[in-house]
Amino acid sequence: MPKQRKVSEEFWNALISSGRNVIDCTFCGRTHYVEDPGSDYDEGELKRLNARNKKNPDKVVFHQGDISVSWGNLDGKQAVYGCPCNSVRKYEDFIWDNRYLIANYLTARALKMKKEAKENSKLARMVQKATTH
Q: What is residue 119's three-state secondary structure?
């Protein structure tokens, strides 16, 4: 079985919306964390994370040198930048493989919304005209 390609930086850049000192990837359950002295950890939390990482580094992932763990929301789940599960790749592949369908849908939807907006604008002018006389 060929090795799955990693998620592209372009997709991550579109997806990432925030950063935290500790967060779970809800695609695979891994906990990701940073050891930033300025982070707001509960008492003993960082020590527990370090111990869990030492015991099971595949389940508790330390992001050395980072000041936060980047993540975004995809399909109602927290997707963590660089998570070894690579679960986000299937979404990127789906979007790219169906880009023409998606572009056609977005175009049709935008045109429909534009038409509705024009109709609503016309109604608003009619109401304004009726209430100012």
A: helix
CB neighbourhood size of 46 (10 A): 18
The rounded distance, in Å, linking the Cα atoms of 20 and 1 is 35
| pTM for this predicted structure | 0.79
Instruction: For 44-103, write each residue's pLDDT tens digit.
Output: 899 999 999 999 999 999 999 899 999 999 999 999 999 999 999 999 999 999 999 999
Cα maximum dimension of the chain: 77
Domain ranges in the chain are 9-97
CA within 13 Å, CB half, 36: 16
